[in-house]
């Protein structure tokens, strides 16, 4: 009888240890995904030719806690500027003067060379030249003629930047750094 009681206690202790370990692992994984790295999916054509619909990305949520976004970064935006989660490229940082002339972007008086961009850049609803304010970013989609970006929704607040897209994980033949 004692052997059976001892065996039951060992089994209960073992089950409790497994339950605690599994619960801790789930909590750590959820915290990691929420605060450090997450997966994002491209849902539209606004970043073509760089990113296409259906591709999956790894988003670094951690890096912007220590430094500000930089020109050229591909960022995930989730804020009041749009009801959708957006993937865009940072073109202007605080203090930059952005202009759009003859279908091209002019940054601080210099025409940008944008090998990643497709189509002509038109002003949209924004008045140019535009000076990027403190704690804001000017973002554009790479597919300039089919993008909802700062030209239509205005500048993006730093607080709306969810993270930086750093790695493409799907499809497998396109895996790699961005």
TrEMBL record:
Coarse class of the protein's main subcellular location: membrane
Keywords recorded for this protein, A-Z: Hydrolase, Membrane, Protease, Transmembrane, Transmembrane helix
Gene3D superfamilies: Umud Fragment, subunit A (2.10.109.10)
EC number: 3.4.21.89
Transmembrane segments annotated in the record for this chain: 18-37
Protein family per UniProt: Belongs to the peptidase S26 family.
Name recorded for this polypeptide: Signal peptidase I
């Amino acid at each position: 009888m004692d052997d059976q009681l001892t065996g039951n206690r060992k089994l209960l202790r073992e089950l409790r240890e497994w339950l605690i370990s599994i619960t801790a692992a789930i909590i750590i994984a959820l915290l990691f995904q929420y605060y450090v790295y997450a997966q994002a999916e491209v849902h539209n054509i606004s970043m073509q030719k760089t990113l296409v619909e259906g591709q999956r990305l790894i988003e670094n949520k951690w890096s912007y806690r220590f430094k500000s976004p930089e020109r050229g970064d591909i960022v995930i935006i989730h804020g009041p500027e749009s009801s959708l989660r957006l993937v865009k490229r940072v073109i202007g940082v605080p203090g930059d003067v952005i202009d759009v002339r003859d279908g091209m972007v002019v940054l601080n008086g210099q025409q940008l060379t944008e090998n990643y961009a497709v189509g002509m850049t038109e002003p949209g609803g924004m008045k140019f030249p535009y000076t990027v304010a403190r704690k804001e970013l000017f973002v554009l989609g790479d597919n300039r003629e089919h993008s909802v970006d700062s030209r239509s929704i205005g500048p993006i607040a730093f607080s709306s930047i969810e993270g930086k897209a750093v790695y493409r994980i799907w499809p497998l033949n396109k895996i790699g750094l961005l």
